[in-house]
Inverse folding.
């Protein structure tokens, strides 16, 4: 249990970082949808390592193949399976890591839970597992494009360490603009400082964290459920299920706790033919249900645990040792690659709730 | 869909704020467990309004009855149903509210989603719905007490508006100490300032928000799943499904994004017979799985939307009006009553994952 | 687990035969549906004991109340809860039964599984649990009536012991006609013989079994899923989950295994504007999906285990004893009361699959 | 939805008969289990066509590969994926079939439901889909072998057309004995007649149906749930989800409906150290829960729809045509190959309920 998300659009990922490959089975894709494979590949390309000087050099092309559910690019209504073979797995490179717990990795907890020392170390809790999510997100986005052509999901790097980008008109930020930034941020001024922070971390053999902001526009009122499956709760789970995440906030978030109710309340106003709100402290969701304003949330990513410094640790037998860094696979900042992951998870949740909402009333 | 949470310990709440009553069906409670009804009532009492001068005067005793699943206080292994009748519902009091959308309530979104103008306004997305959660949490805690007698779940008000409590030794804070504070905070110094802020908001006919911190100790390594059902993801969903929440963070949280990896990594050390970590930036969870350190998270609650001030709004037909405050039901600060809600949701998630973990290995 | 059925229309029953009461929570009822309470009560009345000289005299009026999900008879889109209090439970009457396993009851297996000797003996596996199913079925039928006004679900007693009814034009048999028969059969000739068999069993302090046939007409092609959730598989599970059932067959059933393929194949023909089949050995379902012909299945019910004869048995400690019959609660033939149970389960499955089918294609 | 079965041991099949391949993702396999790949291959070999003169000549080796979840033959606790590439798919051979509905196939209903004319015709409702089930069953059996080494699941062909095998001591029948029969029956006398019936059907370009019986021994009391997930209900669904099935009965089944209660009741007796029953009309399950006696059920399979005779039919546009037989892929009797399918589905259900039962009591 626990490798599946979504109730109508049900996404199950499989595969280990250092096994044969990784993939995803998606149930609930309606039949008759023409999928654009290049959009799936493009999502995978944005996620993969080795895209730029500041990302991990693991050399994977991450070409996907369909195993099922589609014929001549048209979905059949059956489970759609996407698979990406691993080519660059080097279990031997990891063999001694297996004997020493890497700090703030999943090695220790995975061994405690499953009792198996696998080559893959932290097992499923890895960046590579997100390939399946990203492919599923690219498909979810195409489902949404059919039902809600106005919908737009755009994420960007909001901060790196203490450097925060300063943007207005968040609904107007477009994905191609974010893509034109090496860091996938939305503020060219901040970008320079962010790059400096990242390069400095790289030179220090260290890593930095940051925050991703995601804005979803063009969503009608009514998506989400009023109790446990509140739309923000579902988004929070989806985001906190991404590796290295430590926090989620929507609309006014943590800062909003310092406001008074009269400052915080979003006043209803007429916006042309529809009812909207003057402010958007609610982040587009009220009582768990979308209100038609843009959905606006942030996700905190810790600094990557893999660093190129010596660190004290323990062997699996509890013997203190110094863990020496490997040259090689090391991203000083995971944020740019996490942008498509955030978008993908958001697309899965929104598409699932769009379909769930078909039944809400007679 | 959406009124159910938990995979093995499955909790479904039902009932509307202004209907006949509210309740919960819990599947997955093992047979043969002797339940202490007074502990369930005590959880409900901590949640209910009218406990102190600073909470809403809605006058409900919230006495629960078992409808099923138990005989002579011993569970039968069948669905356990708990029911609390509504006595103080005053739908007439709400009748004109039905015509005007209350700012930052669920009225608008509920009507958009379900198309029905119910007496209960925001319907299920209400504080009263949490009665079922709190009762289920009190039972989950008794299940946990059987399997993990060391486990302790303690939450408290970490901040009100900008007043933050200052605590050390978070594992040592006990529930009775929190209960001795009218605000359910853990720092007597901060309490006085918090009370002043709340009273001031009450005099201004306004409301304030704040943050609840929750610490779970005595949890062995191995709870949680490595992919979508990461323990922090499940907790995030559970917390964001509570009314009025806007954010969740675990361990180092949002602030941790400003640290470097070498500062943030939790170094493994021997702690007596077991392996622990020197710091706890991970918040007790690594790779989605508990590591044996205490689980430590925070939840942001917005200032309550119901205030005793005039506010502009719209009728359901889009006509601008001024919404005049009702005397009566109004909590200037929901935080103290939210403490048992946070504990209850945490207990449900932890108990569910304890049982899920029974299968993780041969 | 195991008290829930249905994926979109999700039905959870609760309650023990000799506890406070029994009920059902139904998630997935669309908002805005006006429910006719008298139709629900009528279904419950058809199920309850004491309707006629040949049924158990347990004296329960089985008046239901709504606990949630409805206001002014219009559904709210939230969980709809229906509750029936037990009035005639006589646990004392059962107290010594608790010490002796009743043959072919659930006493032994329930104690083995749950380890609790409850007053309710066989616990949840009881006829009284079906109250929740029947109420849910009555609601499912009203959902169907909205979406598929042509749909008709009619069940009747097909055989009692070796007496089998002989009917033609099964699609034309109507529920009121079945109701006019004390045995709820569809063949007045057979009825007389059936009554004689039942009366004879009653005089012998014994019981008889039989078969119920159910025909569902007016269902469009496309309901059901091609793999595990084949419509016939879902119906089979629903029927075999009713107490006292031993078999399920659809269309040609077991007898069809003696035909050749060329005899058994249903030839496609034009029927007015739509495509139908000449014969209906498929029973209205091909490849797990409805084909527009009427769905036609049979369910085998064993002779009731409770008889008014002395029987050898064992105490819970394995001591051989003779179990003396109780006067009192004893149905010589459960078939007539099982007719609405079969219809109710069929309605739940069909309504669930109707809603599931909304997503099958773009 | 609908490609998944099992709650703890969750099995999802994917793939089309004439697509890239077929496979299965199994969640819930405990970590640390050493799997014997040859047992999986052996199950697949028993299922595959071309085993003997009486089965379809489709030429597939059906060699499986693991895509995930296992390292050095030891399970990792993550989703276990098994994949079998299609080699012999000949979509062109099927191209004109696509224009004509084959009688009693899934072509018509699949097109009605999904609106897509796929090469694979009946799509997922095919014999080839069962590869994933059979692989999952072979794994479920190995899980069971770990927890319940006494457990045995043995199925055989009980009848072909009107030829029925006559066996006693059903618990003693072993799989290797069944395997030694070309028809996989358990009565050498009946086998000769069955073979004659099948050969005769083959010469007539026709097909025959029959019944498979399955006996599960060595199961302790307590497996199954008392309400919707009764063990017999779960088995019924699993069996009716296999292609070409029309009926399911357990224990006394349909014939049992002609007995009286006093004949039918299974009297409890001491059997050595444990309590058993004198007869086994219950088929090993009472009140939905296993009672320790052997579980004994039958499954009806219709005569295969694909025959080598001309048949009238309609094109997708409703034009009457004669469908001419293809030489080639045609099994006159699917029963022998269905034996491992029945065993596999039984193993999945029993293993799932074994794990579910871990929580039933404290």
């Amino acid at each position: 249990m626990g490798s599946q998300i979504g109730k109508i659009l049900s996404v199950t990922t499989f595969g280990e970082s250092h096994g044969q490959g990784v993939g995803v089975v998606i149930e609930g894709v309606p039949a008759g949808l023409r999928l654009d494979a290049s959009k799936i590949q493009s999502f995978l390309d944005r996620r993969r390592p080795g895209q730029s000087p500041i990302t991990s050099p693991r050399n994977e092309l991450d070409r996907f193949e369909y195993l099922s559910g589609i014929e001549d690019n048209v979905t059949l209504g059956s489970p759609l399976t996407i698979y990406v073979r691993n080519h660059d797995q080097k279990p031997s490179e990891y063999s001694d890591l297996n004997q020493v717990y890497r700090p703030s990795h999943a090695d220790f907890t995975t061994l405690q839970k499953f009792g198996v020392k696998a080559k893959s170390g932290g097992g499923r809790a890895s960046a590579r597992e997100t390939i399946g999510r990203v492919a599923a997100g690219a498909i979810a986005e195409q489902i949404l494009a059919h039902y809600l052509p106005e919908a737009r999901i755009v994420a960007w790097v909001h901060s790196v360490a203490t450097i925060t980008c300063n943007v207005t008109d968040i609904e107007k930020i477009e994905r191609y603009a974010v893509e034109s930034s090496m860091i996938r941020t939305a503020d060219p001024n901040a970008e320079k400082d962010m790059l400096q922070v990242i390069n400095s971390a790289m030179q220090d053999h260290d890593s930095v964290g940051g925050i991703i902001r995601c804005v979803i526009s063009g969503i009608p009122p009514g998506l989400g459920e009023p109790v446990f499956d509140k739309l923000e709760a579902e988004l929070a789970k989806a985001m906190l299920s991404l590796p290295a995440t430590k926090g989620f906030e929507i609309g006014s978030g943590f800062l909003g706790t310092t406001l008074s109710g009269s400052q915080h309340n979003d006043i209803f106003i007429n916006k042309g033919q529809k009812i909207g709100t003057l402010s958007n402290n609610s982040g587009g969701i009220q009582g768990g249900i979308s209100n038609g304003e843009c959905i606006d949330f942030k996700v905190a990513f810790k600094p990557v645990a893999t660093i190129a410094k010596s660190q004290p640790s323990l062997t699996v037998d509890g013997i203190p040792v110094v863990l020496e860094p490997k040259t090689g696979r090391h991203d000083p900042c995971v944020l740019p690659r996490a942008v498509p992951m955030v978008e993908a998870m958001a697309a899965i949740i929104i598409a699932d709730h769009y379909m769930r909402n078909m039944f809400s009333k007679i």
Q: What stands out?
A: The first strand of chain D starts at residue 4 and ends at 5. Chain D is about 25% helix and 20% strand. Chain D touches chain C through 115 residues (CB under 8 Å).
